Amino acid sequence: MLSYRHAFHAGNFADVLKHSVLSLILDYMTRKEKGFCYIDSHSGAGMYQLADAYAQKTGEYKDGIAKIINDENAPEALEPYLSLINSLNLSSNASEPSTDTSDELEVYPGSPGIAKAFVRRQDSSHLFELHPTDFQHLEDFCQRWRKVFVKQSDGYKGVLGLLPPPSRRGVVLIDPPYELKEDYQKAVKTIIKAYTKFSTGTYILWYPVVKRELVEQMERDFTDSDVKNLLKVEFCMAADTDEYGMTGTGLFIVNPPWQLTAQLEEILPYMKAKLGTDATSYTLKQLIAE
Predict the structure, then answer these.
(1) Whole-angstrom distance, CA of residue 270 vs CA of residue 80
(2) Which of 40, 134, 175, 183 is catalytic?
(3) Residue pair 128/135 in contact by the 8 Å Cβ criterion
(4) Is the pTM of this model over 0.85?
(5) Which of 16, 36, 175, 192 is deepest in the core (most CB within 10 A)?
(6) Active site annotation includes 175
(7) Do the domain assignments include residue 1?
(8) Full residue range of the structural domain in which residue 184 is found
(9) Domain for residue 202, yes or no?
(10) Which tens digits make up the pLDDT trace of 125-177?
């Protein structure tokens, strides 16, 4: 369908959860000298301008990243993520941060922007995006990025074609727009297939909470598979409803870093306190044991 544009939603509460977790995982991967491969199935534009018409139309970032970016009492687990967002906003040119300071949020990174800040010379990145406009933005964003490969093609197939990576170390993010209901099962099946090829990789699957039965089916598909060591985290701004719209967001994480659960135990109550309401809830559970 290719109508979804993440620019409307950049920096919202779902991005805070997804990108703080991605930052922690990538930070963990860089603690070993050996290189790793980062694969992003639905990359988007790479970087988003918060002053443009898309972001300003919804203003979702104002109820997300803007509420916590300058909070001195943010938990330590959010430090890699918040430091990254702050560094990008030191200058209006996100690809070349300067030493100038600014209290205004001007830019917000998509998942490629997060990854670019962590990957090293020995690491490689593979980014997939189908939307023609976002793909052009992504190509422009990646011009000075070494060892990055950008393709305008099906990210589901792209992920499977790259596994296992030569280094046998990898992080795979699957983050579809869920324009089609089939994406829920397709995303899970892609990870299950990927796991058969590369069982030691770390996989992150983002999902929106729109209809609870779709999330429950994803859980069943995972538990019926051979996938091991699966963590589920969910943050819901409101109770489940049959009405249209996203009430929450979640992640399935295969082979999470050992300390991630403890870090999320800091992040989730903080997010509820700073971003949530009385109706906000969160869950964190080991869905499948190691």
Answers:
(1) 16
(2) 175
(3) no
(4) yes
(5) 16
(6) yes
(7) no
(8) 6-288
(9) yes
(10) 999 999 999 999 999 999 989 999 999 999 999 999 999 999 999 999 999 99
